[in-house]
Amino acid sequence: MTVTGNTGTGTGTGITSTPAATNPTPPPSGHSETTWAKGRGEQVPQGHRRLLTHRDRLTLGLMAGLPTILHIALVWVTALASIALAFTTWDGIGFDSIKWVGLDNFRELFTNNPQFWPAVQHNVIWLAVLILVPMPLGMFLAVQLDKKIRFSRVYQTAFFLPVVMSFAVIGFVWQLVYNPDTGLINSLIGANKPGHYIDWIGDPDLNLWAVLVAASWRHTGYLMILYLAGLKGVDPALREASALDGANEWQTFKNVIFPTLRPTNTIVLVVTIIEALRAFDLVFVFNKGAEGTELLSILVTNNIIGESSRIGYGSAIAVVLLLISLAVIIPYLVATFRKERRS
Amino acid sequence: MSASTAALSKQRTPLRPARILLHVFLAGTALAWLAPLLWAILAALRPYGETSTKGYVSWPDKLSLDNFTNAFQQSDMLHYFGTTLLIAVPAVLLTLFLSSMVAFYVSRFDFRLNLALLLVFTAGNLLPQQVIITPLYRMYLLVDLPGITMSGKLYDSALGLVLIHVAFQSGFCAFVLSNYMRTLPHELTEAALVDGASVWRQYWQIVLPLCRPAMAALATLLSIWIYNDFFWAIVLISTGENMPITSALNNLSGQYFTDPNLIAAGALLTAIPTLIVYFALQRQFVSGLTLGANKG
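^ Those are the sequences you sent over. The predicted structure of the assembly is below.
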């Protein structure tokens, strides 16, 4: 099973698994002798080699090569450039002004930047909340909606609607809800008068939690869909057996359904971690990532579109984000692809 | 097994009160879920003058679509739908085209590089965009394209946005499509190979048509994601006029959208196309999200 991210509009991530069960037989090509083809380092099995003409191999090279060049140039070269630039200062004008400064950027970041540690802390809180609220709630809703009840479609749509909308629009909608003077919450509880005034957006003790409600609101629907897909994989025979044994609903869930949801849980966890690291749009629209809602992604971006464009410094923050991401991505992909190779 | 199924059906019949309780719970939760959206709709339907004097929690005297028409006209929204289409359509088509070629390569042939290639694509798509944005932004400023884009650079151009969308999304699509293509029986192309059909023909006439369901699902997903994109657009586009609609909305609020009711209307208007796509292609969208999450 593998998860892949998306544009980072945070619009969810797709999921795939190698259908090991339905895997077709491997192609009947001899793996005996291999030859280096075109110096591109791929080894072509004999069986294919005899059938692939020169032109075919050129075609294949182009088919895989062009998209790969584009992807590597814009995604991986830039990621590596982030790492390289993190150890330099550069004003962006001309390449000869790049100066090597070693770990200075990081030193300043860790000791001198009043926003850095709060941002790390907020990213951690963001992740913790997404794990503690949308995960169980999404699973619970999925299990209930999986019972073939009436109106299931209607309920699903209600929970899923926020996932279809952009984070920016969600940011605006929740601004209307939280607006201290005219918002839904303060209007209802009468907290928009002087003396009894709650500033959900501006108060640095409250605004992170306010945004997190919106983030959880959206993430729950997304996870519900993933869990519903996972529940379709539960063998009905198991449920029947469990019911026959006189197990009640909770016992059936605990002993039969939950164990089969293990792969889904892995995917959900990875999706959630990536989502927490990517969180940006919602906060940016909500209050520009001002005091109380700083995130690593916001710090990187402010460095670009803000007043000071310190390239090396911005890259250093990006490297911190990259390292945290890779700590999740690498073990996950290694495990996934190892499984695929075995199948 | 008939005896057991009979016993089962007896056990399966839900207890009525429990079922009713479940419906009450689900309906209540669903309503709570829709509340913020309903609030935005209600605000957008009321004139600002009325809500500012009576407060928002009050019985509306008058509901009208004025805010919607004003938001649409004042912000020149039609223009922004245009800029968005100009970015989203080529980006979706190119992403599907390029990633299906990569998928074809890694799933139908067993070259040594395949696994590494797929890993590169998959991992690339999992990175947070902010990891690459600083050098990307600089790169876009450095690339001169005189006469090709309005800005003369990759920066601040639709082309620049299309390229980064394609590069970033093709990771996800290549992965999904390669899994899909792997399930197609090899005999399909083996025969063509023996008959001497070129690999291009195998891809274009045999494999691609069979991938239609997966392509449809991915196209739906990509359209919504790219339409909803906010981050690339606010960093890589500087001229307000060139912005796609989602980031334009952010730009316009405060400039044309002065009161909360107008902002609500503007935000809801930008969400309408995605909602239409979702309701029209619900099954594709959901299956795209969960593609292959369960076997079969």
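Residues 163 and 229 of chain B are 14 Å apart (CA to CA). Confidence is low (pLDDT under 50) at residues 1-10, 292-296 of chain B.

Shout if you want it in another format.
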